Amino acid sequence: MSGKPKLHYFNGRGRMESIRWLLAAAGVEFEECFLETKDDLTKLRKDGSLLFQQVPLVEIDGMKMVQTRAIGNYIAAKYNLYGKDLKERALIDMYVEGIADLNELLMMHVSQPADKKQEYFANLVDKATNRYFPVYEKVLKDHGQDFLVGNQLSRADVQLLEILLMAEECKPDILAKFPLLQSFKARISNIPTIKKFLQPGSQRKPPLQEKDLPSVMKIFQ
Amino acid sequence: MAGKPKLHYSNGRGRMESIRWLLATAGVEFEEQFIEKKEDLEKLRNDGYLLFQQVPMVEIDGMKMVQTRAIGSYIAAKYNLYGKDLKERAWIDMYVEGTTDLMVMIMYHPFEPADTKEKNLALIIERATTRYFPVYEKALKDHGQDYLVGNKLSWADIHLLEAILMVEEFKPDILSAFPLLQALEGRTSNIPKITTFLQAGEATERWEGCCHSEEEIQYLIVWLLQKITQP
């Protein structure tokens, strides 16, 4: 048994990707066990490994952790990505929850029926550019610092970079009106651990293609 | 500026109820400003009070906090309802996320179309009795202690109590197969501050009027209108 955290999920982003980002940013090596068929999920359930019968599951520090937020909270706190006190933590939590809401929208895009896709996409872009990105642009503008909270790298910066890149995959010029987010993106991408994660061959996962959707749905149905 | 926390939401449970529970358990008096029409929400937005244009919003300790989980985490940590270390916190987080998933199902139930409502209710009951409650029953059984984590009242216990009471409204005997949860329900309901919260006039109205009153549904619709579009 190695000491490395072990991630159980399908071989795609989904709800596990933000965990991969956090571990990578913290410089923590991790292993992955991919669910490929429904039987793989059933086996984990029968083993009693899944507290609520669901993945993500991360084996870490002797615990079988489930629930994305719980896992993210634990990793962020353990590796000093959660601010220095309660108030910084509160800000980080607010920012991360906003990002999580936008991420839900992004995640659901690929599974929209064909006739709804365009409308959905328009709403997605609207929310990203009118509700969420302006908030983070303003935060950076107001304090003029390199990071969102407390002048040091936190989970909020890591998750924001993740979502900025995902949004650009949907619409390459989506950051056109956000100069500080653009420079933020460049800056955070250059942090050595993150730079490494962004290189080909890392454990970062590509976006889910529509053609892969059926095989993923089979695992979870 | 010290002073009581101030909650901004509609006069209904929705996503604010868990926050009310936490504050009440911690013995923290709070004020409420109810959103009664769309203009109230617009005003909050135009004043720049809502970080992501959404409620719940809680004014506390000089912050205008939004996002239910962020608010809950802050209050739990501040009032020692979040365990004594990182690992206890991890367990509390897992348990709270589980009960959240269950309560979100219940929260959306009034909005189910008429033809799928019964099926949806059956699913809620099934999830409660086969996915969620067994986990908490087992946790109590395995360590034999009075509370879910660390032998001490935490956010996890309060959140579970809230979920149990909500499901009992649909099916009063839902805990018949869960003796330890029944005991936990009794034990936590009898904590003085929680008893007070359950007995207080406003809480009872919100409780009895719950998600079934037309007014509550209207307030929730206002909330839903400004929520992210769900697929």
Q: Please bin the fraction of helical residues of chain B.
A: 55-70%
- Mean pLDDT of chain B, rounded to whole units? 89
Report the strand count of chain B.
4
Number of helices, where a helix is a run of at least 4 consecutive DSSP H or I residues of chain A: 9
Helix content of chain A: 55-70%
Number of separate structural domains of chain B: 2
Shape of chain A: globular
How far apart lie the N and C ends of chain B?
41 Å
Strand fraction of chain A equals 5-15%
Residue windows where pLDDT falls under 50 for at least 5 positions of chain B = 207-214
The number of helical segments of chain B is: 10
Strand content of chain B: 5-15%
CATH topology of the largest domain in chain A: Glutathione S-transferase Yfyf (Class Pi), Chain A, domain 2
Largest sheet of chain B: 4 strands, mixed
Please give the order of strands in the largest beta sheet of chain A. 2-1-3-4
Q: Given the C-alpha coordinates, what overall shape of chain B results?
A: globular
Give me the Rg of chain B, rounded.
18 Å
Largest interface, C-beta within 8 A: A-B, 35 and 31 residues
